[in-house]
Specification:
185 residues; VC0467-like; alpha+beta
């Protein structure tokens, strides 16, 4: 099992039950002893961050449903760890969090744009051993992250793309319709 911070997990096509049906999750923190935290990359909400947070500067950044845990908190993943103090490196040039007031100032100054930051309400979380058990039972496929996954504007096809990029049998699985029972009728 190759779970670690910075990797993605992709829901198997037969995994049903919101919120993880056909989800791609970026693991932003993983420890076998402490559990895992991640954000669902392909569940956009119909809201923009500047409408969600009252004193946020005008910004065309969409908000995504990150997961079912602590949905009253907004998180962000970005590429500007060089500018945002207190950011946590995820790897592959991606960072999680950082000084929020500085983020707002950098956006207001035009130094951070929508292709460099993504916002999430809530997060996906697993206690120690829980994610490993779900991977072992076949609920998740572990894959490499790609910055294009995070900033893709084609959210509806992200699961198919991430699944296909795993190669071999996964390319076939990526073609399975979202609701196979309806497709067979």
């Amino acid at each position: 099992m190759n779970l670690k911070t910075g990797r993605i997990i992709i829901a198997q096509p037969f995994m049903h039950g919101q919120p993880f049906t056909r989800s791609v999750v970026l693991l932003t923190d993983y420890s076998a002893l402490e559990g895992a935290i991640g954000f669902i990359l392909n569940k956009p909400l119909k809201m923009k961050v500047d409408r969600l947070i009252a004193d946020f500067p005008e910004f065309d950044g969409h908000v995504f449903y990150g997961g079912p845990v602590q949905t009253e908190i907004i998180h962000y993943v970005h590429t500007r760890g060089d500018l945002l103090s207190d950011s946590t490196s995820i790897g592959n040039g991606l960072y999680w969090g950082g000084h929020f007031e500085k983020l707002k100032a950098l956006i207001k100054q035009g130094l951070i744009n929508t292709s460099q930051v993504r916002f999430y309400i809530g997060y996906a979380g697993w206690s120690p051993g829980q994610l490993e058990a779900e991977v072992e039972e076949g609920s998740w496929i572990i894959g490499d992250s790609d910055m294009n996954y995070l900033f893709s504007s084609n959210y509806n096809k992200l699961w198919n793309l991430a699944m296909s990029n795993q190669g071999d049998v996964y390319t076939v699985l990526a073609q399975i319709p979202a609701n196979i029972t309806t497709s067979l009728n």
